[in-house]
Amino acid sequence: MSRKGTKKREENSSYRGRNYVKEQNWGKTAYRRQRKQILTQKNIQDRLRFGETVRKTGYLRDDKRARQKRSHILFTDETWLEVSPKGNTQNQRYYTEDPTKISKILVPKYVIKVMVAGGFCAQGVKKLHMRSGGTVNVAYYKDKILPLQIYIQSMKEQTLFTQQQKFTFPQDVAPAHTAKVTTKFLTVWGKGVWPGNSPD
Question: Gene3D superfamilies, per this entry (predicted)?
Answer without folding.
Answer: Ribonuclease H-like superfamily/Ribonuclease H
